[in-house]
Amino acid sequence: MPICFHIDADARLCIVTLRGSVSGAELLAAQARIVEDPDFRPGLDVLLDCRGITCMDQVTGVDIRRLAALAVAEAKTRQAIVFGDAPPAHYYGLARM
């Protein structure tokens, strides 16, 4: 699986690591796994580590909007996205959606 996560309940932080080729379906499945994790609590801050991504060509704007719609209830969380050296411009654009 190109997406793994760790929840640090004491720090109220969920670290999500993406590696290799990532699809929109995999992003949605990972979000579902995170919410189902027994350590998950609403309001966790999120750090997305995207440094290991090699391809996001299968992630669409529709996928990002679906993820965002599921996360609207978490509007009070802080989120940070980390990319490696010079990711393609469209990766940055998808992340900003």
Summarize the structure.
This protein is an alpha/beta fold. The chain has helices at residues 24-36, 61-71, 89-96, and strands at 3-8, 13-23, 45-58, 79-82. Strands 1-2-3-4 form a 4-stranded mixed β-sheet.
SSE blueprint:
Blueprint: E1 3-8, E2 13-23, H1 24-36, E3 45-58, H2 61-71, E4 79-82, H3 89-96
Parallel strand pairs: 2-3, 3-4
Antiparallel strand pairs: 1-2
Helix pairs in contact: 1-2
Describe the structure.
The structure is a single chain. This protein has a four-stranded mixed beta sheet. Helix 1 (24-36) runs parallel beside helix 2 (61-71). With 97 residues, the protein is of the alpha/beta class. The longest helix has 13 residues, at 24-36. Helix content is 33%, strand content 36%. The chain contains three helices and four strands, in the order E-E-H-E-H-E-H.
